[in-house]
Write a structure and sequence with these properties.
alpha/beta, 2 domains, Arc Repressor Mutant, subunit A, Rossmann fold, 255 residues, 10 helices, seven-stranded parallel β-sheet, three-stranded antiparallel β-sheet
Length: 255
């Protein structure tokens, strides 16, 4: 049996039985466990399966893990700091109204809001509201709702209803994934509903995301790239992605 035939047979077994152990595959095909692992690695690269400890399952069997706030805050910290600083140039003029999504990059923007700019800020993140509460020239409004344990964001019908009544100068949103083909995505449906309402509330919509998330899709789409006015990211973004986003009339700011 050729390697390609063996790999195709393994993919069929995983699709049928929803799992395949390395030891079972080695015995079934009369090859070493090292060969099986190489075959599974190839199948995973092709997007057909997902490897787990001791074997493999179908590619759609596992839901991606949503990282907690503390873990996400440590990831790509320097890039997020640069993104937040670059986003200052996209703030509205004195007297403007902004909406800050819950997230580690938007929180960094909140921490460096200029002291001489009068702004009204709406957010669904208690941590952002507390951070800016003592700012001398920013009036803070906290949007209520059920606070998710994972992201510390207020979500749910109450949150969405409040956002539906708003119209702000700039909505600054975060995202877990962004592709030109599929749009902006997040793992949780309640978070997606809130983010979609934030997009609808903004005269201008600005996405703040580090480049690791560009080219990634997560479970629930909350918007299309065409709805963005600007994207602020770091220099890890590929030239093809920049060109594709600019072709949609999106201002791509590389921090």
């Amino acid at each position: 049996m050729y390697a390609q035939e063996r790999q195709q047979a393994m993919a069929g077994m995983i699709a049928r039985d929803r799992r395949l152990s390395v030891s079972t595959a080695a015995e079934c095909f009369g090859v070493t466990t090292e060969t099986v692992r190489r075959d599974l690695a190839i199948l995973e690269q092709q997007g057909l399966i997902q490897r787990v400890h001791g074997g493999a399952v179908p590619a759609d069997a596992l839901t991606p893990v949503e990282l907690a706030v503390s873990e996400r805050d440590r990831a790509a910290g320097p890039e997020k700091d640069r993104i937040a600083k670059a986003a200052l140039d996209l703030l509205p003029d004195d007297g403007g109204v902004i909406l800050l999504d819950a997230g580690t990059t938007t929180r960094r923007l909140a921490a460096i809001l200029p002291p001489d700019r009068r702004l009204t800020l709406f957010t669904n993140a208690p941590s952002i509201a507390l951070l800016v509460a003592g700012h001398p020239s920013v009036e803070v409004h906290l949007i209520g709702g059920r606070v998710r344990f994972t992201t510390h964001a207020a979500v749910g019908p109450t949150t969405v209803a409040a956002l539906n009544n708003l119209r702000v100068d700039v909505s600054f949103i975060g995202t877990n994934g962004l592709t030109v083909q599929h749009g902006l995505t997040t793992p949780d449906a309640d978070e997606a509903a809130v983010k979609a309402a934030m997009i609808a509330a903004g005269h201008r919509v600005v996405a703040l995301t580090d480049s690791r998330k560009i080219g990634q899709d997560t479970l629930v789409r909350f918007g299309m790239c065409e709805q963005l006015d600007a994207l602020v990211t770091d220099d890890g973004i590929g030239a093809e992605d920049v060109a594709a986003l600019q072709s949609l009339d999106i201002d791509v700011v590389i921090a």
